[in-house]
Specification:
binds pyridoxal-5'-phosphate, 15 strands, single chain, globular, 8 helices, alpha+beta, 6-stranded antiparallel sheet, 9-stranded mixed sheet
């Protein structure tokens, strides 16, 4: 059986799925998205992603295309039709289709909705986490509303490609003050030499990662000292451990930054423990 996508009310063969050439997401990146990790065919961190979706849409004055309950049914039906247990669910909502004009359409149009599901390999993911990954730093060059999860991701795409070409798994953006903002598709964390867990506060121009929120709860429950504050690249390079979080990566230990080892150059105990605690907790709460 081939892959199935949901497009504007219909479940269609992935190979045939298409949006209109005047979809505003396609022409202006006038669209938002969400990605859910899946565990055993269920959605991880469901509510956090719906809450952020509603907020992103609200910030752009795009209507929620359907209720949370109806959207949940669509996501779960797309998962079911693809017969995938471990993977990622992608939802994109654009303002809709209208003759090309920068300003919003004068009369209301229906948002366009696309859902796809992709299989992931949990064994390969565990091996990757056990080995740890490298990150490449790059100057922050994104717009001032990174809290909105829009599909306007060109700086992230270029940063991630540069990371890949350097043999790294993720790019970390560094702002003009030498502070780490976040990853190209993840939030950045360090563990200081005093054992304090540090991640950038959400007052900064970053995406409020849902995995980040859940992991903060997990770390609090595990009685780990936490500071939500900015940290510099210099502090990250001399940290005991570093890692990043996101629905795709879950939690991946960082063993090098720009080719220089972090700590002893191996995944640290805090990152390793938090990864398994996060997975356990996300699995238990998946719907
Ligand atoms: N920051 C950016 C720029 C992202 O694109 C993502 C995920 O795609 C994240 C952080 C992590 O967010 P989440 O944990 O909700 O997946």
């Amino acid at each position: 059986m081939g892959r199935i996508a949901y497009v504007n009310g219909a479940y269609v063969r992935h190979a045939d799925a298409a949006v209109h050439i005047e979809d505003r997401g396609y022409q202006f990146a006038d669209a938002v998205y969400e990605v859910w990790a899946m565990s055993g065919g269920r959605l991880c961190d469901p509510e956090g992603h719906f809450t952020r979706l509603e907020r992103s849409l609200g910030e752009l004055s795009i209507d929620m295309p359907m209720t949370r309950a109806a959207l949940t049914t669509v996501l779960k039906e797309t998962i079911r039709r693809n017969r995938i247990r471990d993977g990622l669910v992608y939802l994109q909502v654009s303002r809709g289709v209208a003759p090309r004009d920068h300003v919003f359409p004068a009369s209301p149009i229906a948002p366009a909705v696309v859902v796809t599901v992709k299989r992931t390999d949990p064994v390969a993911a565990e091996a990757r986490a056990a080995a740890g990954v490298g990150v490449l730093t790059t100057p922050e060059n994104r717009w001032g509303r990174c809290d909105i999860k829009t599909v306007g991701l060109l700086p992230n795409v270029l940063a991630k490609q540069a990371a890949k070409e350097a043999g790294a798994a993720e790019a970390w953006f560094i702002d003009a003050d030498g502070l780490v903002t976040e990853g190209a598709s993840s939030n950045a964390w360090i563990v200081t030499s005093e054992g304090v867990l540090v991640t950038r506060d959400t007052g900064a121009n970053i995406l409020r990662g849902v995995t980040r929120e859940t992991l903060l709860e997990v770390a609090r429950t595990a009685n780990i000292r936490i500071e939500e504050r900015a940290f510099s690249l210099t502090e990250a390079c001399s940290a005991r451990e570093a890692f990043f979080t996101g629905a795709g990566a879950l939690l991946l230990p960082v063993v090098s930054i720009d080719g220089r080892a972090v700590g002893d150059g191996r995944p640290g105990p805090v990152a390793t423990r938090l990864r398994s605690l996060y997975i356990e907790s996300a699995r238990a709460a998946a719907i």
